[in-house]
């Protein structure tokens, strides 16, 4: 068991506040150690705790800050669950953004997905899951085709779902502590 995640301290927001806009190189260097300790290390603690809970979440990366301002103002991380399937987290002054996504699937994966959507049993189950996630406040998005793929009827009840070439569910939490 590694360090326990207790949330981001309020000082983390102060550090990010100082890095708003286009901070100079000198400003970024002045806040480097504080950003590492107050912003990046809590993200590592969070993902270690998640990985300790379930080994499926052990493959993760916590990004460093680069030369661009955006990277200093946002702490990103990703948990890889499978081929092109991931959970991403981003902490910033806006809060904690959490997103689950199936990105840029292989053509074979898209075809398997569409067959599952068109099937009565798995298609209904998937539609119910997507609707439940939407009702919980997640934005559902992803690449969408203009018309149904060949072989799929235009009047099928789940045609809109078959138009997707990838899925993403995203939600922003405004608070950043464990208590909230």
Task: Reconstruct the topology from this structure.
Elements: H1 10-18, H2 25-53, E1 60-62, H3 69-73, E2 75-82, E3 85-92, E4 95-102, H4 107-118, H5 120-135, E5 139-141, H6 159-162, E6 167-173
Antiparallel strand pairs: 1-2, 2-3, 3-4, 4-6, 5-6
Characterization of the model:
- The chain is of the alpha+beta class and 180 residues long.
- 42% of the residues lie in helices and 21% in strands.
- It has six helices and six strands; from the N terminus they run ααβαβββααβαβ.
- Helix 1 runs antiparallel to helix 2 and helix 4 packs across helix 5.
List key phrases describing it:
alpha+beta; 180 residues; 6 helices; six-stranded antiparallel β-sheet; 42% helix; single chain
- Would you list the SSEs in sequence order as H and E? HHEHEEEHHEHE
Average residue-wise pLDDT: 86
Task: Measure the end-to-end span.
Answer: 24 Å
Q: Numbering strands along the chain, what is their spatial order in the largest sheet?
A: 1-2-3-4-6-5
Taking pLDDT < 50 over at least 5 consecutive residues as the criterion, the unreliable ranges are: 176-180
For the secondary structure, the number of strands is: 6
Please state the structural category: alpha+beta
Number of helices: 6
Principal-axis shape equals elongated
Helix content: 40-55%
- What summary fits the major beta sheet? 6 strands, antiparallel
Oligomer: single chain
Q: What share of the residues does DSSP label as strand, in percent?
A: 15-25%
Instruction: Give me the Rg, rounded.
Output: 20 Å
């Amino acid at each position: 068991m590694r360090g326990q995640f207790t949330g981001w301290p309020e000082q983390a927001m102060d550090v990010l506040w100082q890095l708003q806009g286009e901070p100079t190189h000198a400003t970024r260097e002045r806040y480097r150690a504080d950003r590492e300790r107050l912003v990046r290390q809590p993200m590592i603690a969070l993902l270690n705790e998640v990985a300790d809970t379930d080994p499926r979440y052990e493959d993760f990366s916590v990004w460093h800050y680069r030369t661009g301002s955006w990277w200093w103002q946002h702490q990103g991380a990703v948990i890889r669950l499978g081929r092109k399937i991931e959970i991403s987290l981003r902490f910033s002054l806006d809060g904690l953004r959490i997103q689950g996504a199936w990105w840029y699937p292989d053509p074979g994966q898209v075809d398997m997905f569409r067959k599952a959507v068109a099937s009565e049993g798995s298609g209904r189950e998937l539609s119910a899951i997507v609707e439940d996630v939407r009702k919980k406040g997640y934005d559902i998005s992803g690449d969408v085709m203009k018309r149904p793929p060949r072989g799929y009827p235009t009047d099928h009840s789940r045609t809109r779902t078959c138009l997707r070439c990838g899925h993403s569910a995203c939600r922003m939490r405004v608070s950043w502590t464990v208590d909230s």
